[in-house]
Amino acid sequence: MKRNLLRYCAFFTLGILAGSIAMTWLLGRDIERLTYKTRTQQEELTETRQQLSELKASLEAARQKPYVRGIDARIRLAGELTDIEEQGVRIELEKEVKERLQPIMDQELATLNYWLIPGMVNGRVAEVEGKQFELHVETIVVAEILGLTVRARFKPPKPVL
To answer: Mapping DSSP to helix (H, G, I), strand (E, B) and coil, where does residue 102 land?
Structure first.
């Protein structure tokens, strides 16, 4: 009886030892995998932080360079229109002028050829509400918000003979 008890204790102890070895082996692989993953993520984090600092530096440099951020077009209408017509026409003509000047948006002021701006608008004919208006630039202010004063003259339709 005493021998059987010792035999069962020995098998029980061997089972505990075998289970411990198996658990250590399995957990060791997981710990190794997690350690490797942590190390690669730390390297990625370091690289991402470096890229972020470079982007911040380039953004700061870009902010120091002025560029065209917007267009403020003021329309002076020449011709006889009612107040309500005048407001609607003015809004549509401002949109038209901004569309024509869209290619110069986001250009640096230092490289902007401001001599070409009047040519983009002068002499152009815009049709609003079935009426034609000839556009002529009177004033240009070259800054981050490009300012223009544009005279819009009503072109009466040509008489049909």
So the answer is: helix
N- to C-terminal Cα distance for the chain? 133
Distance CA 104, CA 116 (A): 10
Closest CA to 91 of 128, 122, 135: 128
Q: What is the pLDDT of residue 6?
A: 84
Q: What is the pTM of this model?
A: 0.57
Looking up tokens 């901004």 gives 98
Q: Taking a C-beta distance cutoff of 8 angstroms, is the pair 142, 115 a contact?
A: no
Give the Cα separation of 156 and 134 in Å (integer).
Answer: 10
Rounded to whole angstroms, the Cα distance separating 46 from 25 reads 32
Structure tokens at 2: 């005493």
Please say if the pLDDT value at position 91 is more than 80. Answer: yes
Chain-centroid distance of CA 54 in Å reads: 18
| pLDDT the model gives residue 53 | 94
Taking the C-alpha atoms of residue 93 and residue 87, their distance in angstroms, rounded to an integer, is 10
**Alpha carbon distance 137, 74 (integer Å):** 10
What is the enclosing helix (H) or strand (E) of 53?
Answer: helix 2-64
Tell me which amino acid residue 69 is: R
